[in-house]
Amino acid sequence: MAASRSCTLRFMILFSIASFLYQSCYSFLSPPSSIINPSKVKQVSWKPRAFVYEGFLTDLECDHLISLAKSELKRSAVADNVSGKSKLSEVRTSSGMFISKAKDPIVAGIEDKISTWTFLPKENGEDIQVLRYEHGQKYDPHYDYFVDKVNIARGGHRTATVLMYLTNVTKGGETVFPEAEIRYMLIDDKWDKLPNTESSLHTTPAKDDLSDCAKKGIAVKPRRGDALLFFSLHPNAIPDPSSLHAGCPVTEGEKWSATKWIHVDSFDKNLAAGDNCMDSNESCERWAVLGECSKNPEYMIGSPELPGYCRRSCKLKAICSYMVIVVNLLCGGYKPLQRSVRRLCLYALSLILKLYE
Description:
This protein has nine helices and 18 strands. The protein has helices at residues 2-29, 59-69, 105-118, 149-152, 284-289, 292-295, 297-300, 311-330, 339-355, and strands at 41-45, 50-53, 74-75, 78-79, 86-87, 95-99, 128-133, 139-142, 158-165, 171-172, 175-177, 184-187, 190-193, 218-220, 227-231, 245-247, 250-252, 255-263. Residues 124-264 form the Fe2OG dioxygenase domain. InterPro entries: Oxoglu/Fe-dep_dioxygenase_dom, P4HA-like, Pro_4_hyd_alph, Pro_4_hyd_alph_FE2OG_OXY, ShKT_dom.
């Protein structure tokens, strides 16, 4: 009887230990919740559209990203405006590395949270880049959208950026928007509204703990776990000049951050070489029929420097229009056809071209 009780007790103890270890490992390895709490999001600016999510990352997630990056850091580079190739520059003096989206469950969970918050597909995002800024290191004012053909060819422009702060910074290291219209600023660990006047744009809060760099516009102080979301393009996909931003020099302490750049199209698929005469949206044919090729040519067709996203449908629309003119002229004068006939023409041409793809 005593032996039986002793065995049962040992079993219960071992079972309790196993259960505890399982729960601990599960909580560590399982993806964090992708549920977003809107009450933690504050609009910082409308020009550009910028928002801060307080406590977006947990301490565990912050530490995990830093631990993955520490041994892999390399000097950060910038994209050449002409060739699109990466190059070293004194404009950007941090060090960093990229973490693949499926690196582990924790990273995958962060990817899920970013997609849920931004309402943008995960496939449109680049891998998370973890950055370390030591004393004096910074990133001068720049845009996140590209001006070269090489980088735009894959996924199009960067439309949004999520900047996650992994550590607190004693002094400096703010993210500043020199061309922004101020709405809120972090003062004494609270987001306070500032008057939206020209005179207030470069003024300093009553209790000033901002660096000189941060006083040049709206500034977001790095606070562990917080995330800054801002858009580099207007809703019509035109670059927004007010999205100019900089990473202020770290004057005391060290700054760790993680950046997620999100494109207008999938970044995971490589576009084929050539003139990129293809559609990047399933609604392109419908938009072309509704006249968007002429109403919104920047997005639909693009330019020699900036490829559009519905070039194939717009080319078909042009061919269809020419055929309508020719047919009507041959039949005794130009008579505009009904929209349904134009749609049928466009659809027929689409089927014909698909046969030759």
